[in-house]
Amino acid sequence: MMTLKVNGxxxxxxxxxxxxxxxVLRDDLKLNAAKYGCGLGQCGACTVIVDGEAVLSCxxxxxxxxxxxxxxxxxxxxxxxxxxxxxxxxEEQAAQCGYCIAGMMMRAxxxxxxxxxxxxxxxxxxxxxxxxxxxxxxxxxRAVHRAARMMxxxxxxxxxxxxxx
Amino acid sequence: xALSTRIGLAIVAALLAIGAAAFALVxxxxxxxxxxxxxxxxxxxxxxxxxxxxxxxxCMTCHTVRGGSxxxxxxxxxxxxxxxxxxxxxxxxxxxxGYWSEEAFQRAMRSxxxxxxxxxxxxxxxxxxxxxxxxxxxxxxxxxMTRQPVPSTRRDNELSFPYNQRPLIAVWKxxxxxxxxxxxxxxxxxxxxxxAYLVEGLAHCGACHxxxxxxxxxxxxxxxxxxxxxxWQAYAINAQSSAAVPWTEEALISYLQRxxxxxxxxxxGPMAQVVxxxxxxxxxxxxxxxxxxxSLSGPRSPEQVRRGEAILAExxxxxxxxxxxxxxxxxxxxASAAGEGAALYAAACASCHETGRSLPFAGIDLRLxxxxxxPDPRNAANTILYGLPPLEGERSPIMPGFASSMTDxxxxxxxxxxxxxxxxxxxxxxxxxxxxxxxxxxxxFLETAAQPPNIAVNPPPRDEP
Lengths: 165, 465
Description:
Helix content of chain A: 25-40%
Distance between the termini of chain A: 26 Å
Largest sheet of chain B: 3 strands, antiparallel
Number of domains of chain A: 2
Radius of gyration of chain B: 25 Å
Number of helices of chain A: 6
Largest sheet of chain A: 5 strands, mixed
Radius of gyration of chain A: 15 Å
CATH topology of the largest domain in chain A: DNA polymerase, domain 1
Mean pLDDT of chain B: 92
Shape of chain B: globular
Structural class of chain B: mainly alpha
CATH class of the largest domain in chain A: Mainly Alpha
Order of helices and strands of chain A: EEHEEEHHHHH
CATH architecture of the largest domain in chain A: Orthogonal Bundle
Number of domains of chain B: 3
Number of strands of chain B: 7
Oligomer: heterodimer
Number of helices of chain B: 18
Number of strands of chain A: 5
Structural class of chain A: alpha+beta
């Protein structure tokens, strides 16, 4: 058994140290926002935040997350109380099939936590590891800019629980 | 005349002579400014040849910074003496070389002096470019002067005393700069000589692949014995090569043209930028470079060949029966450092590096990776931390970096394990220091390099000049 800190609470999980974090999140904790895309760290659909950094959970074994804070999309906000990044993606209608969007939001969130005023170039560079096969890239870019403005305007009330720092 | 007066005069005369000699050593005249030439005055064929030459010389990589215009300079280059910023070589009159005559350009290439007569730092590899023919310099000049002029803000070098004193460069040149041009070896083939001219001159391979002395000059007695660039180890490409399978001329041609070879892996770091540049070069010149480069390591020993074949046979076994999942590699308990490294390899690396699928998109069988057998773990550390970042708008191999998820200590254990498991070489020393340094040096490199250090697979044809 090992302790996994996810979205602010501790979970006792029965996992081998070499089990990918993604499997534990989805199969054991039923947190299904992070998606299984390629399983090889090539598409970004599985992106979560670990200690403030965007991490590909499919190539991150449990041994690497012991004692660290893991944040998934569920930790940012809910359908009732969406976080700024989630509201921005909805308002820009940035999802088509939606499979990549959780990962996109998590990587964008990690960027916005360190840089509240990213340039278009910085957003593009940051999101390079995340693929979208539908082609909503321009909307995703707009959504990240919108989220940056919302977070900058200090809509503190809608910052989700779980406190991804 | 009293003896003391005569001695005094002699001292004055000696000082004047020393002064005159120093002046002659250091001083170079300015070459008159010209009106920036009309691009249409250059013959298209000359410009086209200049473009090919610029690609062989890889001018773009150093003279372009992330987010800046091509050839407009500004790339910080870390040296042991401080940081040198590359210059703008577009024909912008104020900040570029728009006022430079061809004579001024020829002089800069041959002797590292700018139009105004100022000595240039040898970060600009004129110790190699001095071997270029006037004709090739003329073509390069035509190519550069027909580019879009781009104004830029000049950044001052950040060098410590005394290295910030440009007159001292004249002394460096006296010691290390040979200006006798390229001499062909009549005993060798025309192709070999063409390759020697390119490798020793314009392509300046030794600038990275030859170790440097304490004054930053290439050690000619250790030519091609391995040097460095941007905190990447530029492997030895002479007889001391660390390659698991010995390089052949055919392998080099393929590697230089495509950026990868099944027996050696994918070019990364600054070499990825080199092969990206070479993609537009005529295959004849690539063959010539490969012919000469292959000759640098001399004939392969039977033992080297046997070892290479044995490693390839092992790798072929994996290809026919790949590991099913990452967890199928039995992982020893993670209590010891070796155990931790093995567990990390099994969990984070094996799922790509043991698939048995073929390059360039799959992970290389690490027994074949030169980085595992290299004298120090720098390149492996850079790659584990930052992976192979994808190229925008291109098909490229991708490896995720682990800088965000692995601590320095974990990367260190992993490297130590990889060295034991995938090479027959002695353990690396100072691994932890190398990892800590790689973490910040690579972050800085990735931030300033004009594009991610990765290769485009089957790049689309380039625009014509």
